[in-house]
Amino acid sequence: MVATGGLSQLEGAGGGGLTPWALITGYGTNTQIGANGHVTHIATNDLHMNSYGAAVGLYDRVEFSVARQDLNTGNIGTALGLGKGFTIRQGVVGVKVKVAGDAVLEQDSLLPQIAVGAQFKHNNRGPMIAALSGATNDGIDIYLSATKLILSQSLLVNGTLRMTKANQTGLLGFNGSFKPMLEGSAALLLSRNWAVGAEYRMKPNNLAVVAKESDWANVFVAWFPTKNLSVTAAYVQLGRIITAKNQNAFYLSMQVGF
Predict the structure, then answer these.
(1) In b/e form, how buried is each residue of 157-195, taking b as 16+ CB within 10 angstroms?
(2) Are 36 and 53 in contact (CB under 8 A)?
(3) Domain range annotation of the chain
């Protein structure tokens, strides 16, 4: 099935654009290695963000990923006295392990595929973040994902529970205690080469006093012209980011892999 390679999440994990799935990236079987690379661009009226990275799946059991996020604050940087186009960069190293189920092969089972994962994040703007909110520029997210693929209906559903201290995925640092955040995805395969879906990602809003944070949601369409290439376009509601409200964005991502 062409689309079972999934997409690449903003932080580099295999899954949807906003949230990881329990599937292991690539098309490798339990005796093979698979891999993906991605480039993603998100643009609002005030902000631009690029994410790019790669992931490797080992024997349909373990996934390792790396990603870099560059957030250009545009006019918001000017308003904050940081300078127009002030850029915040974050590196993410991830690991995911399948612990139960098989989304593709176990169609007669109610048990979804289940995976646990962690994303280690480092932000390059430690002094600014500390001055803004007292946050640190290093953190970790831990998550549990469950994915069910119903081949007879060409439907994939996913739920993720994330434990996080991150502000805006870590781009504004990490503070407070770990908070549980729910994330979800649903995707419908319209044909062998086209899929549509939607996602929702809760956000902790740790900086409500100085930089209120909104939950994220999107609707997307994905095109799989070949097994080794996918292109995804989405409309994303990001809500409030730093001082800017109603940050609705267009999202474009390309992934290559095997």
Answers:
(1) bbbbebbbbbbbbbbbbbbeebeebebbbebebeeeeeb
(2) no
(3) 2-249
Read off the tokens for 66: 């790396």
Cβ partners under 8 Å of residue 139, min gap 6:
121, 164, 165, 166, 170, 173, 174
How far from each other are the two terminal CA atoms of the chain, in whole angstroms? Answer: 13
Give the whole-angstrom CA distance, residue 229 versus residue 37. 10
Digit-coded pLDDT (tens) for 180-189:
999 999 999 9
Given CA atoms 15, 17, 20, 25 in this order, what sign does their dihedral have?
positive
CATH class name, domain 2-249: mainly beta
Span 186-204, average pLDDT = 94
Provide the CB-side half-sphere exposure for 136 (13 A, CA).
Answer: 9
Inter-residue contact 155 to 165 (CB < 8 Å): no
Degrees, nearest 5: CA angle 85-10-231:
100
| Structural element, H or E, at residue 115 | strand 113-123
Mean pLDDT, the chain, whole residue set: 90
